[in-house]
Every structure is written in structure tokens, then in C-alpha cells.
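Example record

One chain of 243 residues, shown exactly as stored in the release files.
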Amino acid sequence: MRILQSKSIANQVDEILLERIRGGVYLPGSRIPSESELSDELGVSRATVRTALAKLAANGFILRKQGDGTYVNEHIHETSAHFGNLWDLAELIAGNGYQPSIRFLSMERRPATEKEALVLALEEGEELICLRRLFYADQQAVILADNVIPFSLLCEPIEKIDGKLHIRDIFEQYFHQKISFVLTDIRSTVLEADAHEFLSGESGRAILQLQTIFYEKNNLPLALGVNIFDDSFLHLSLAQAWN
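Predicted C-alpha cells for this chain:
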């Protein structure tokens, strides 16, 4: 396998190694090839491989054993959120052992609020596309997800948007954008009436809010997401290694 030049070399190596771990090419507990072996296979420098491995180690995917090599974390499947998939709500649900599905609730165009404009680097009042979706774990509604996206990024007719797709596929198919990284803020909130209509439990009870900001490779913000997460049903855990 050789690296192509259409993307940055570092990003490609990150994606290749992460996909191999997620896809079971490198099994939990197994030893992965050395830096020099990966460097020769992928046609990149050892420094590039070393950087990619450092990121994987910092996020709990691999463990480095002095004098022995690098191993895939054998507990990798026990956590529900690693590296970049905390924002992928369907993967988060699947990581809890449930079958994810998405109910598309609504889509509208409206002006950006002051806060939304600030986050998305827009002028206040610029138009947004607002998607509201409800995520299920088996038959249980567990996450109410609201995403706002600048209308100016839309490349296809708005009526074609399929709200049941993964957010990454929505961006690629209708906005011709690829998510490069996501910042997630986790905080406690209360289940208000608007969300209580969709999620079970008493109104006013404590619940988690995951706020996500999606970026493309040049640090342009693509969308703002606010997700009400029913942590009484789903388990949220994060993996990060200590060096």
C-alpha cells in the first residue's frame, strides 16, 4: 500500500492505522508492525509513523511496551467512545451493544443566532439549515440531536437531504465536505419540556448534553451540534492512555 498525495501524509497514516484497528486487521491484544515496517509498507518516513502511533497511544487505542513493541489495547471494545467517534452517535450506541437507528424529525431554514454565528464564523443573521433527529438504541429513544449548518455550504437541493444518514455522509453527499475533526463539550443539564417530548424519564431530571463543533481540514467550522444524551440508558466512557 502506498500513500497518495491528495491528502496530507499524516492524515492518511492516521486513517489507515485507525481503520485497521477498528476493522480487526490488528486485533485487541495483538502486536502491530514496527515503525520501520510500517514506514516501508506505506512509503512514508518513520517520523510520520511515529506521530500517528503517538496519537493512537494518547487516545487509548494502542499500548507501547518498552523493549517489546506496540500492542492494540485488549480492552478497546469495552469503551463506548475513543479518538474521534464520540461525535458519531450511531457508533456510540452500537458501542453500548444496541442496534442504532435514526428518526428524522424536522429540517428548517432560519437566521443564525449571535452564539451560532460566533461558533460558525458567520455574520449574525446568515441562514442556517437546522436538522433535528432522534437516535434510538434498539427501540429506546436515547439521543435528541440538533445540528445547524451554514446554508451557504449546501451544494445540492435542500429537499434531497436524507436525515436518516450518518452526519459524515450528510456532509459528503449534500455539502461536499469531509469532517476532519470535532470538538466535543460534555456538560450536565436538565431534561426540559422540548426534549422530554422525545426522551423518557421525568421532566427536570439531570441529563447529559454533548455539544459538538465539526471542522474541515482547514479549520473551517462546518456545523454546531447540541445532543441531549440519556445517560440513564446509555453508558459513556472515554479511553485515554497515560504516558
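Notes: Residues 6 and 193 are 47 Å apart (CA to CA).
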